[in-house]
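Example 9 (inverse folding). The structure is encoded as follows.
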């Protein structure tokens, strides 16, 4: 889904139309408190060739983890990667995609507050994973009271222009990620009707 979005010609055109004509991207997989891995290190994406180079590296990597869900540790790790990027950016964004609540690592409110204090915007992509209920004991994690989108809105996203998208299944992930990237690149209100998309917040 990420690879499909980054290589999307519409996304590449949006990047080229920006003030700098380029964005810096890194891709991190994460799970439990000590489980974070840089799958694609920082690369500059400015044209179809550089977008393809990024996605080729991403697609070649096996899935790194099948552990718990430490959003707090993922945010802390992402902040370290931003500091190590060597890129001076006008905006810094952490995209958090997941299908459950924080259940490992330090308190999420602490990690979130530290990221926001650093001027970073945190956007979210909440994936509805109804199949988790079949495995027993996971429904409260993937379907918290009020729903996962509401939990993400209250506990994860934040910063200037922060927003949340909800994905109803893993199959529609690529399309949602494309919309998410386009909104982040152009830094404008997405062309969605909020009445029809209550999970989309600003």
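The amino acid assigned to each position is listed next.
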């Amino acid at each position: 889904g990420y690879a499909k979005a980054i290589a999307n010609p519409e996304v590449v055109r949006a990047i080229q139309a920006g003030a700098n004509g380029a964005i810096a991207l890194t891709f991190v997989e994460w799970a439990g408190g000590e489980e974070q891995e840089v799958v694609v290190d920082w690369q500059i994406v400015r044209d179809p060739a550089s977008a393809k180079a990024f996605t080729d590296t991403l697609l070649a990597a096996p899935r790194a983890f099948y552990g718990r869900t430490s959003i707090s540790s993922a945010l802390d790790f992402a902040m370290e990667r931003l500091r190590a990027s060597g890129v001076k950016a006008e905006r810094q964004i952490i995209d958090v995609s997941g299908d459950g609540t924080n259940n490992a690592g330090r308190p999420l409110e602490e990690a979130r507050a530290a990221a926001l204090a650093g001027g970073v915007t945190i956007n979210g992509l909440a994936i509805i994973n109804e199949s988790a209920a079949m495995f027993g004991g996971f429904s409260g994690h993937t379907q918290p009271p009020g729903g996962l989108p509401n939990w993400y809105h209250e506990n994860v996203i934040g910063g200037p222009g922060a927003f949340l998208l909800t994905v109803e299944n893993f199959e529609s992930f690529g399309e949602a990620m494309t919309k998410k990237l386009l909104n982040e690149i152009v830094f404008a209100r997405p062309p969605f009707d909020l009445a029809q998309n209550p999970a989309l917040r600003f």
